[in-house]
Design a protein that fits this description.
single chain; 157 residues; alpha/beta; Dihydrofolate Reductase, subunit A; two-stranded antiparallel sheet; binds NADP nicotinamide-adenine-dinucleotide phosphate
């Protein structure tokens, strides 16, 4: 099972200057709840953007170079592993584009804002391929910049 998880603004932006373009604590909690105990796959640039290892998750990083200090995996390796395990694709833009054609499920958080000068985008989702199964609007808390909507999209058989 291949599951993608990302947060995007109203224009599909996900990143700016190598980082997330918002402070959105409620979404980080949502991300943690979904991925905890699982295997997360990310591109090297997203790996570089993390403050450190996320607790209680197996980290697999994609790079065309040899990386120290973290387990790496190839594109084919991810697809093979997803035959037996649920794999969470956690970004960034390059890696989402690579795996969208293979994703079974997508957890998408729409952050209700428009980021100025964003430089990284999620790929466009084709609604002939995915259907929005759940959608839940959540008002921002004191630790969020914006309101958000949590969605679950599933591939149409
Ligand atoms: N909003 C969200 O939900 C969210 C989630 C995650 C990340 N982000 C944001 O997204 C941005 C980073 O995204 P990005 O698109 O610039 O980079 P990225 O997808 O995180 O990483 C790109 C890197 O992955 C490696 N790679 C790509 N394709 C590969 C392949 N086929 N085989 C092996 N390795 C491959 C390469 O690493 P090497 O250069 O080492 O070869 C490439 O430079 C940041 O701003 C981050 O904060 C946002």
């Amino acid at each position: 099972m291949l599951t993608m998880i990302f947060a995007c603004d109203l224009d599909n932006a996900i990143g700016k200057n190598g980082d997330l373009p918002w402070r959105q604590s409620t979404d980080l909690q949502h991300f943690k709840q979904i991925t905890i105990g699982g295997t997360i796959v990310m591109g090297r640039k997203t790996w570089d953007s993390l403050p450190g290892v996320l607790p209680n998750r197996r980290h697999l990083v994609m790079s065309r170079n040899n990386l120290d200090a973290v387990e790496t995996i190839t594109f084919d390796g991810v697809l093979k592993l997803s035959e037996t395990d649920e794999i969470f694709i956690i970004g960034g833009g390059e890696i989402y584009s690579l795996f969208l054609p293979h994703a079974d499920k997508i957890h998408r958080t729409i952050i209700h804002c428009k980021v100025n000068n964003a430089d990284t985008y999620a790929p466009m989702i084709d609604y002939e391929e995915f259907i929005v199964k759940n959608s839940k609007f959540v008002e921002k808390s004191a630790r969020d910049d914006h309101d958000m909507t949590f969605e679950l999209l599933v591939r149409i058989d």
